[in-house]
Design brief:
It contains 7 helices and 7 strands, in the order H-E-E-E-E-E-H-E-E-H-H-H-H-H. By secondary structure, the chain is of the alpha/beta class.
């Protein structure tokens, strides 16, 4: 039997609690959308665990967890959660990578427009996705990766000019992040 739980709002619906319960009867839990702008607090053996990117069924021993296409991933958050010794996580190569700089840009835009974001970079990665200026894990292994990387750097530098910040992103900054991603895969 296949079972899907799809939220109809932006969160705080109790999806995590329901998934945690349903995962007792499932073999695979798939996170198919979203990013680390929310989280779940799960108690296991009276220990408090906070996860933001992994599906809440991750704590079940025989349940595989898949981070599927269209998930927005800040690598630092994933590495922090993986350090909880999960071995049952599989990651799609179509996941979009968020940089810490995206969180900073999200903060800057919110200070001007006052849209009430969580400063997690989700709105910026959505914007970058629409203008085809973001990358996912799959693109890292393509020959034209350097051109895509240059587009990203150009985007960040234009944003900094817009905010009159004297910051500049260089290619080695993003290469460092990419090295971590390749090691993880």
């Amino acid at each position: 039997m296949n079972l899907s739980l799809i939220g109809l709002q932006w969160g705080d619906e109790g999806k995590g609690k329901i998934i945690d319960f349903i995962s007792n009867f499932c073999n695979i839990i798939i996170r198919y959308n979203g990013g680390h702008n929310a989280g779940h607090t799960i108690y296991k053996n009276k220990k408090k665990n906070i996860i933001k990117i992994l599906p809440s069924g991750i704590f079940k021993r025989y349940c595989l967890c898949l981070l599927s296409d269209n998930v927005f991933l800040l690598l630092e958050n994933l590495l922090k959660e993986i350090n909880l010794n999960f071995k049952n996580v599989f990651i799609s190569k179509n996941i979009f990578i968020i940089n810490l700089i995206d969180e900073f840009i999200d903060y800057l835009f919110d200070k001007i427009i006052k849209i009430g974001t969580t400063f997690s970079g989700i709105s910026i990665i959505n914007f970058r996705k629409v203008i085809k200026c973001c990358f996912n894990i799959r693109i890292i292994f393509k020959f034209n990766f350097i051109n895509i990387l240059k587009k990203n750097i150009f985007f960040y530098n234009i944003i900094f000019i817009f905010f009159k910040l004297k910051l500049k992103i260089f290619i080695f900054f993003l290469f460092k992040k990419i090295k971590k991603i390749i090691f993880f895969i």
